[in-house]
Amino acid sequence: MCGIVGLFCKNPELEPLLGEYLSAMLVQMDERGPDSAGVAIYRDPASDGWSKLTLYCADPAVDWDAIGGEVLDVRAKHAVVLLEGDADEAEAAIRAAHPGVRVMSAGRVIEIYKEVGRPRAFAGEFRLDDFAGTHGLGHTRMATESRVTTEGSHPFSTGHDLCLVHNGSLSNHNRLRRELRREGIEFQTENDTEVAAGYLTWRLREGDSLETALESCLEALDGFYTFLVGTADGFAVLRDPIACKPAVLAETDDWVAMASEYRAIAVLPGATDAQIWEPEPRVVYAWEKALVA
Q: How far, rounded to the nearest angstrom, does the alpha carbon of residue 199 sit from its chain's CA centroid?
């Protein structure tokens, strides 16, 4: 079933409260996804020439300082590390030197945290209320097609500052995974959502805009889905042609929010005055910092 939430701060004065609001929204999706929970937070851009990676290790005794670079934050088996150089090169170096460490995300602004367990416990363990940022995505998972693990939880990131959360199921993910691997896209799990994230990464690498890449999903991906995609500048929403998975959008002068159910939006300030609508099937809805629309 799964639950999705997203919040984009149009008003910079709300950015210090992003984590508090996103946490409240995520907890509202508890019944939709009791197996695991995760968030992607966009904040604190790395300086030019540097990359920011979110790392995960199942060993609680891991020495994050031994990874190299500057450790910016440590939360529940996750660490955010600042490394000099290109994100692809930094990620490859970590995988080669530290096989027990998983790279959850790489780029300049994205941070991904996820874990098995109920959303309320996750929000407390990862101190979500502490986060400030421009925008964030969250997911609560009820697994249907792959194991319940930290690595198999959402969000999935397979490109710089790009991530995806998904409610639904894809029927052709095994074939598409094989095709994308031939294009150089790497996968770490058997989860169908990671394939959708990898497909977007490939289309963007081939020169598509985010909107064009999402529109191509309508033909390339078989199944039913509501996607929420995070980028360095904002987020986008897409529902499949049948649109059987629920989604609600809301917008005020201060924020844009998306959720699987309105109750997750109702916790936000000003929700009663928001413009609220159900996104249409096959239509890409997108908001960015440079051009809020």
A: 15
DSSP symbol at 187: -
Distance CA 108, CA 98 (A): 21
Is the pLDDT at 30 greater than 70? The verdict is: yes
Task: Compute the 3-state secondary structure of the chain and give helix, strand, coil in percent, each to the nearest 5.
Answer: 30, 35, 35
Active site residues: 2
Three-class DSSP category at 235: strand
| pLDDT beyond 50 at 98 | yes
Are 93 and 12 a contacting pair, CB within 8 Å?
Answer: no
- Domain map (residue ranges) of the chain: 3-43+133-288
* pTM (global) more than 0.85: yes
> Residues 235, 244, 23, CA angle at the centre, nearest 5°?
45
Residue 293 is predicted with a pLDDT of: 46
Question: CA of 57: how far to CAs of 11, 100, 211, 289, 291, in Å?
Answer: 35, 6, 34, 33, 37
* 3-state secondary structure at position 234: strand
Q: Tell me whether residue 96 is exposed, middle or buried, using C-beta atoms within 10 angstroms of its C-beta: 0 to 12, 13 to 18, 19 or more.
A: exposed
CATH code 3.60.21.10 for 3-43+133-288: no
Residues 180-222 pLDDT 10s: 999 999 898 888 999 999 999 999 999 999 999 999 999 999 9
Q: Which residues pair with 237 in a beta bridge?
A: 228, 285
Q: Over pLDDT 70: what percentage of the chain?
A: 97
